[in-house]
Specification:
CATH architecture of the largest domain in chain A: 3-Layer(aba) Sandwich
Distance between the termini of chain A: 76 Å
Largest sheet of chain A: 6 strands, parallel
Strand content of chain A: 15-25%
Number of helices of chain A: 13
CATH superfamily of the largest domain in chain A: Response regulator
Oligomer: homodimer
Order of helices and strands of chain A: HHHHEHEHEHEEHEHEHEHEHEHEE
Number of domains of chain A: 3
CATH class of the largest domain in chain A: Alpha Beta
Radius of gyration of chain A: 26 Å
CATH topology of the largest domain in chain A: Rossmann fold
Number of strands of chain A: 12
DNA sequence: TTGTAGGCGTTATCAA
DNA sequence: TTGATAACGCCTACAA
């Protein structure tokens, strides 16, 4: 593989000149620059990014840490969409993405932070990690600039991107109320998730506003899992025939609730209205199609890239980006009366 | 950031000793090794992968080139699943993945091959590219070891992973025939795709075996697109009320056909049986749920990693891996008579 | 068992 | 406008 030295030799100049010619410095005559360019091309020269990084101390690389990336059966496109947005924007900044995953088969000895330091990533995006994940602490304390998805931590070079979970849930529940529902249960996710707390807030808020008292036992924990939500719903719906609607903290759980309904002979939306959260692809194809709170996952990715770049460029920033949600109305809710 | 030099200084030894102690050479006394390890730890030392690469000439990095990665609305989990399998296996080999995408907003000046050379990736996986993609040629000619997904090219350090498309299609159609169908149309993808040719082969084979003549006009081109398949089906189904089944070269197209059926008042599967291909997540949730030819995408990814490693380690290999498919029977096919 | 010295490919500093 | 030279952090003959 050709190096600057090869070019220099062939052009009869020094490596310095070659370097500067190729990097567009203006203290090199156009004539030699042209000659050098030509030779570089003919030699199929590509600068060695690593050698460059070594001296500039810039790897032009950002790390993506995804917990549970390798798990099969991740039905929600969430991770992937965020990754796309991220990659798209990062490449605009001239950065490439490098992927790390935690749960490798051979219990990886190296820690996240170590991986990042070895590769000298300039920043990190963390996604899908739980609030109590030990990796989380490790990375935050590592002083590598870092942006979290859906975990609200800010600090020196630490920020996060999320959507307006309170408002999203609020609007969903208010929509149900406007459709005449009052007996509205809430299938929430596990407590380790930041978003769960926020969405509960939104639920409570909408209920309070409508003057509907909230029964704590009507807030279920589906652990963001389809089968768990199904089982929870199975139990709950049998005990509470009076419920007319259920708001779910994820589409996957909403699908679980649908399954439970079907099994119990409860027709959606006639006997039970359901609203989900996320707007995953399946939502549109479910039967009936699912009314849900949509998050723009692609945008979450690019916003995360933007925020990280702010850190890297030393820009002043609050370190938080809260994106809007959008209620997508389909066929899983019926108007009461 | 701590370097070997720092450690050496603090331990009162040379950098050589540090390097060898940390890399597990046995010509260093256990006592000094222990001391060096301790100091390294206390200094939070991580070796600089780039400096190491520079001298070992091994980047421990493989590139992933995905065409159309950033396109929103890629409903099939395909790319993502493959990526997961790839990443999972690669990390077992001690390799990290670096992502490149072509269609960045700012028309990226650098070519794929250039990107790969700059980052000194040891090998490349190419996915989602069309047979006539200029990038394809470029990469293949670049003499970087490379594995293609679903494109049958082999050569020096070039190989591919695919599934048995002929057999997959054959089994799908034979299944339809066993259910009593004879008037079976085929919604194929575009001709630029390798898999389309193969699946057509399988279709023809099964039909011939059953002694059912194939009418070329019954083979449609849905371009692997949901709306295109829908429109094609709309036209075709109106003209051919005698068709009882349609085999589709992708689940997405099968969904398009379902939409068309619905619009025409043709009930699936009572009036029209449908078999798809891929087994994307939506297939299970569609209404009726879709009988389809499943491909293990995760496994395709890990097989690709394996093959690439064979190249990198100079192992003898045919350069092709053809994985099995698996007919998943759900509710979109009815038994005739 | 340990240390010295050279080099990987690039950029940066300084002098010519 | 150009060139010599010294880094960057690491590994690896070779010598001690």
């Amino acid at each position: 593989m050709a190096t600057v030295k090869d070019i220099a030799k062939q052009a009869g100049v020094s490596v310095t000149t070659v370097s500067r010619a190729l990097n567009g410095y203006d203290d090199v005559s156009e004539k030699t620059r042209a000659r050098i360019r030509e030779i570089a091309e003919s030699l199929n020269y590509s600068p060695n990014a690593m050698a460059r990084s070594l001296v500039t101390n810039q790897s032009k690389t950002i790390g993506l840490l995804v917990s549970g990336l390798s798990e099969e059966g991740a039905k929600d496109h969430f991770t992937f969409d965020v990754l796309n947005g991220l990659n798209d924007r990062a490449s605009e900044y001239g950065y490439d993405l490098i992927l790390f995953n935690t749960n490798s088969a051979k219990q990886r000895v190296k820690s996240y932070a170590q991986l990042c330091r070895e590769r000298r990533v300039e920043g990190v995006i963390l996604q899908g990690v739980k609030v109590d994940d030990p990796y989380l602490q490790e990375v935050i304390e590592s002083d590598i600039p870092c942006v979290l998805i859906d975990i609200p931590i800010t600090g020196k070079n630490v920020g996060y991107v999320t959507t307006d979970n309170v408002l999203g849930a609020y609007e969903a529940v208010r929509y149900l109320i406007k459709q005449g529902h009052e007996a509205i249960a809430f299938m929430n996710g596990h407590e380790k998730a930041y978003v769960s707390g926020k969405r509960l807030e939104g639920y409570n808020q909408a209920m309070a506003e409508a003057g509907v008292p909230v029964d704590a036992s009507w807030v279920l924990n589906g652990e963001f899992s389809e089968p768990v939500a199904r089982d929870q719903a199975l139990r709950f719906l049998q005990e509470h025939r009076e419920v007319t609607a259920m708001f779910c903290s994820s589409d996957l759980m909403a699908l679980g609730v649908m399954q439970a309904s079907k099994r119990l002979g409860v027709t959606v939306p006639k006997d039970l209205s359901i609203v989900g959260y996320d707007d995953i692809v399946i939502a549109e194809y479910a039967h009936p199609s699912l009314t849900t709170v949509a998050q723009d996952k692609f945008q979450m990715g690019s916003a995360a890239a933007d925020l990280l770049m702010d850190f890297l460029q030393g820009k002043e920033t609050s370190g938080e980006k809260i994106l809007p949600t959008n209620l997508v109305i389909r066929d899983s809710v019926t108007r009461l009366r």
